[in-house]
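Researcher: Good morning. I'm working through a list of sequences from a screen, and I'd like to move beyond sequence-only analysis. For each chain I'm collecting a predicted structure so we can compare shapes side by side. This is the next one on the list. No need for commentary yet; just the structure.
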Amino acid sequence: MRRYSHDLVKNLPKLLTKGKRSLFFQKNRCQGCNLCIVVCPTGVLESSGDLNMRAANVPRVKAGKEKSCILCQRCEFACPNWAIYIIDEQPEPQKPATPASKEGAQKAVQST
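Model: Good morning. Structure tokens for this chain:
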């Protein structure tokens, strides 16, 4: 799962958001193969009838099916052009250094 700060992904085109994860779609990367539609286990995606710069029909989320998406990433893995992908927009919180690791680091510095 790719993790990016909010500043990096705030302007990317989203199809849907669930919690801190979002499904992004870059319309002009799509070649219209519909693999994302075929592999979706919940049937969330459908062909939109809209054409992109490649004259390909691009997918969209079916009306009323937004909550059905389980963000399984099958669409992402099936897409040969990386036109559709899921990103965790909020990075995991960094763990604070433990006292034991601080002491070990100090000993390593002192011994050199």
